[in-house]
Amino acid sequence: PLVAIKKSVFTNEEVDRELAAKDQGLVTDAAYLAIKNLSNGGSDMPSLNSLRIRRRIINGAIQLHRVPSAKKEDGCRRSVPDLLRYLYLLPNIKKMIHNLPVQDNGRRKLELRFAGDGRCTTKRTGTVMCLISLVGEGVHNASREYSVNLCNGKEDRQAMETTLAVTLAELTSLVKEGIVLGDGESAVTCDIALTMCADRKFLGLFLGILAASAKYFCPYCFASKDLIADFSIESWPIKRTYEEAEKLHAKKTVDERKGHDALPLLDIPFTSYIPDTLHMFLRIMGKLVSQVTVWAIEQGRKVDLEREMERVGVNFTIKEEETKFTWSNLDGNDLERVISRLDLQNFLIDSDVSQGSLTKAPAWQLKMADLRALCSARSLSVKGRGKADLIDHLVEYLNANEHDAELKRILRKPRPSHVRPMVVSDIVQLWKDYRVLHVALKAEVSDGQYLAPDVFAAKAREWGCLYVRTTFEEDVTPYIHTLVYHIPEFLRKYGFLARFNLQSVEKKNHLQTTVFHRLSGKGGNKSSYTLQCLEHENRQLYYRLHDYVYEPKKYLKKGRRRRKERRTRLLWLPTTMPKRLHQTLQLLIL
User: Fold this and answer.
1) 470-510 pLDDT tens trace
2) CA distance 150 to 163
3) pTM of the entire structure?
4) Which pLDDT score, from 0 to 100, does residue 391 have?
5) How many CA atoms does the CB half-sphere of 282 hold within 13 Å?
6) Shortest CA distance to 280 belongs to which of 122, 498, 105, 75?
7) What sign for the dihedral angle of Cα 502, 507, 510, 511?
8) Are strands 188-198 and 273-275 parallel, antiparallel or unpaired?
9) Alpha-carbon gap, residue 449 to 337, rounded angstroms
10) Do residues 502 and 117 make contact, with C-beta atoms less than 8 angstroms apart?
């Protein structure tokens, strides 16, 4: 029989590689111990104690600071200058910074994107996360989002002021003074060009501007809700400034403050607060799909819509509840598929449509006891399995006794106040024009589908006018206002906006929630889950620095793999052999 040879000594590199694989696979200590005991008697894997010792050492790669002002004193942060100096040690980032052009003052300009977002980690635990990313790094994924502040709590202005105070002071200092990266001859002095991107809720709290439902809803201009649907206005330029906010937020009335409820937390131009195109796409596409769903239900074509959704490969169901209709929530990929592939003419017809969500008659909002009382007062049967049976009894009674005003009010659905004719071909054109804008914003400047800022502005205004003519003025949202009037301004300044959006930040949210559930103490037994999450991110940077990151093997489909193998075999054929023999061998291989 084979006898396992026990290896008693492992080098630090071997232990670190084992720890890197364990962290990348989110393997808990208990699971690692179970695998070790099953694997060749545990002789070919480092002990759990040795992994814990190395983990404590690597956790200090970047110093972590507690944030006592966070909820339950569970908050943690990393110094932004310390993080940038550690990132400079990575070869690809060092090369990227050295390739930046030198300015007239002898410094390089380093673009830094600051982002923030909140999430529900559990039903009772909320987390607010702030991150930075290097725009010039050219990689837009969660591994290139670097957390600088992580706190227990919810998105709240007062909490932001206290928990982010040190981080914002560091960012302000970097913008004013710059930073020196590296030592000796390799040292580089950089000016920091800071931008910020966040969803509308976080950005409004950060800027001290009222919510999107307020009269002055826009974080960039002074447009009011009275003019939100007036796309005949040629432009709404970005006029908000920090100095203007200082004057307005101290005014007495809401109209005088023009949306400013407090001062912005950072003193940078408002043109540096870039709109998040991810949430803008989701909200606008969601609005378009919801409108079509409501109209299909009004026309009694619910089944046709579900069948058309199934044809394009989207799981979509409409449920009829007691007081209203509900339908499936679609993610970003499904919404894009629906907007690009759904054939509206397969389930919609030209007709009059109403504005707003669908609701049922007031009788459905009554309790069973109230419905039984109505039936008893009219000597009707109170037997039935639910509200539907009792309402059927009342409807039959009302058909025979039309003079009953109380039943008319309860059983008749109120007529919509906004009704207009709908032409399906106009809706098709509306979706088609939106797809042009959607694709243009996701395209890079060198792509053929990219639209120049002036061309985009003209097409966006035309689409806004068509939207109002085709649907309802009440359906114009703040994100549509941003798309039409402010996105062109940011295109002129930054060109490609998709590199700033929150797609990678949302993925980072998901990864940190996974770490919370699998690798942290979840805040129990006096543990700090925010500290444990940032320790995990410290280790990920350490693995990148020492090239311990495991890249999973990419598998190809059977047909693709065979074609690739054939091409590889052809490369091994000597080019010096006779042409006839070379062609014969090619045919045999293929």
Assistant:
1) 988 888 999 999 999 999 999 999 999 999 999 999 999 99
2) 9
3) 0.82
4) 76
5) 13
6) 498
7) negative
8) parallel
9) 18
10) yes
